[in-house]
Design goal:
The complex is a heterodimer.
Chain A (H helix, E strand, L loop, with lengths): L52 E4 H18 L2 H6 L4 H15 L19 E4 L3 H13 L4 H5 L1 E4 L2 E4 L12 H11 L3 H4 L2 E5 L5 H7 L7 E6 L2 H13 L6 E5 L13 E6 L14 H6 L2 H4 L7 H13 E10 L3 H13 L5 E8 L5 E8 L2
Parallel strand pairs in A: 5-6, 5-8, 6-7, 8-9
Antiparallel strand pairs in A: 1-2, 3-4, 9-11, 10-11
Helix pairs in contact in A: 1-3, 1-4
Chain B lengths: L1 H13 L12 H12 L9 H11 L4 H4 L6 H6 L15 H7 L11 H18 L2 H16 L7 H40 L3 H25 L9 E8 L3 H21 L3 E9 L5 E9 L3 H5 L4 E8 L8 E13 L15 E5 L17 E5 L4 E5 L5 H26 L5 H6 L5 E6 L5 E4 L5 E2 L2 H5 L4 H13 L6
The chains are: A alpha/beta, B alpha+beta.
Amino acid sequence: MKLSFAPSSFASIITPIFTQSKIHTRPISYSSISTRPTSLKPKTPLFLRPPTYSTTVSELQKWHNWAQTLASSVGSTFLESDNGPTSENLKREVVWLLEDVLENPKSNLIDNCGFNDGGDFVKLRVELGDLYVLWKQRVEERRPFQYVVGCEHWRDLVLSVEEGVLIPRPETEKIVDLVSDIIEGNEMLKEGLWADLGTGSGALAIGIGRVLGSNGRVIASDLSDIAVRVASFNVQRYNLQDKIVIRQGSWFEPLKEAEGELAGLVSNPPYIPSGHISGLQAEVAKYEPRLALDGGEDGMGDLLQLCTGAASMLRPGGYFAFETNGEDQCKFLLNHMETKTKGVFYDLKIVSDFAGIQRFVTGFKVK
Amino acid sequence: MSYLILKRSFRRLISSSSSIHFQNPSFKSQCHHFCSSHLKNTIQASGYHSFWKRCRGSVLFSANYLKISSFGPSERFFGSGAAVELSSSDGLTVEGIIAKQWPIVEESVSDWKSHASSIAQSIHLIKKRLKWKKLEVRLAILSSQLEKPDLWDDPIHAGKINREHGSLVNKVKAIKVYEQELFEHIDMIKLAREENDPNMESESMKALASMRKSIKEKELEALLAGEHDSCSCFIEVQAGAGGTESMDWASMVMQMYKMWAQHRGYRVTVVDVMPGEMAGIKRATIKVDGEYAFGYAKAEVGVHRLVRISPFDSGKRRHTSFAAVAVIPILDDGATTHFQINESDLRVERMRAGGAGGQHVNTTESAVRITHIPTGISASCQNERSQHQNKASAMSVLQSRLDQLEIVRHAQANAQHTQSLNDISWGNQIRSYVLHPYRMVKDLRTNYEVSDPDSVLEGDLDAFIFSFLSASMDKDEDDL
């Protein structure tokens, strides 16, 4: 396991405002392994910052025109070079950036109709000058939009993210749908203990925590201390600290006491073959944590470890769902489980994402 | 003075119950006695509504008395089931007033006949717009269904019947109250003249004039009496053939609706946009949230034509392009015509997904398309910030499109609505916008035209909408 973080040269140009006084994880029914106390605190996403800056509508309009022009200049060059964003994607992001920094985003100000006339003042959550810097970072440096605004909209959640934490992907949303379907009418799963390994921003843990029954609990683990801090922040923002506990450590290590007890296990582990990392689109390769992406030479290292762990950690009838790199990994895993861990799992399935790519392997531990 | 008015307005009411007199100046107790003992059988026989208005103006009533308003019209008009034609004390009816053809002069002129004539015509128009006779027939059917003892065995059906009955009762009630008020004022004026009371006459005249104004406004509201008119809606614009010029036109049309909707105070959200390669849009869908959004916007369904010198033509030639507009109501949850979607009939696809996906790709683009396989109808959304939300939004568009299918199916089984649906059928050219060689916007259905295309393109559409709605509602002369 490598512990490496994205370069912080593009870390926020704005002094983070710490609204979190102290991150703490409350112990729940089972004993809590101590989490390393952390001195660093997560950055506050733009949309949660106080609207303490103001500018005129016409100044903001100037920024908007500039930002749109910069977006237009991209055309399809990023798309052609590394499957990056097009002008169309970037223009939509301009609107969302404004949505996050304006005090009243729902006013007609940022509607596509353009701005109202007049020298009226508007309240912003960042200084106008910083807004220029942020958009330059997005377009010229290819800093991921989600790191620029400090959040990602995922399912019906708005999750805080920052450099060092994987930005949750739309594909991964489906795991929550799968879990939500599977627990329907199954009390053991619905009210049981779940684990989300390599939780990153806490997306899966929170998504699942919100569909479980009142007694359902989730333990989420991550090796990265930034991830642990950000996930804890997100858990508290959704007021799920009684339901979800975040622990630092590698895979199953922080939840040894739950061996044979897990009702469910989900993970979106690093699965990209090491050799592919450098060729990824700039947003991913330059900024996202390698720890969360690099799955070793064939990308299967962590997935195989999870399969082995699932055999011992799940209770009889327990469910698992893992995200993979695609068809090859799905088939390999399925084959592995049907042969190497023969008789341990049943109802093994490959599930495709909405793009039609075989993405997930799911199954149950035999009863 | 107030006592006098009360007495006079009561005179007719109490002619059948002679024991009650207003000799006692202790007005309040008289009223109390009067109201409590004769409320149901006496006051409801005639103009209590107007009476209460007057009383409230002159005497302070306790809350007890005011509660009386909650009895009233519905019981009075529907208690017996049969609709009785209302009239003044000397037998004048709405139809009678219209037949007299009293000339209608300006509102400022104190001529009760002019006011009455105008009000009678408004009532007549509103009744026509509400399709009054059909409405009464329908109401009778619903009333008899409501009386069936086994109605509530099927609570969903019963709920529908009950809701529709309630809404029709309210419509009828509103008109009856106007008629009642009209005759009340007429009687008062006649009475005032008999008794030579100029104060009373002028007060009633004023009331008549203000009623004339307020019912005029109701005429517009009655244009939106369709079953789904009060719904929010989706507006969709699709560019016709003709490349960038027509895609630019489509985006101008979309812009026109956005601005129109915002001026009307509706909330506008872009659901789905497919931009053109160079400029404009191939198609787009917006959601317009607010009361009567569908009722107004449905008047815009059809093909819109633009004639201008194309800014995209280096040869500066004149081009004609087309954009098609569709409007889909967003039905309430309680609506009767919801299409039942089977989860297993749906196919959900990620749009514009390139490459390996998953951790390989960081994109803020998470558009999905949902297809209802049996009908082939699909919907997509890419303007939300998560795939989950895009899916939810696309799903709501799909639901509305399928609901619309259901509405058409329902209407075909129900001949009375077919006419109105034909009026808004998709695909007809409805309006022409000419920017060159002359400047004009003309509605081809009503021939309504204006010579300022800019204001229209900036969303000033109400005049077109109203002229179309009134033309389509009012064309069958005798269809009350």
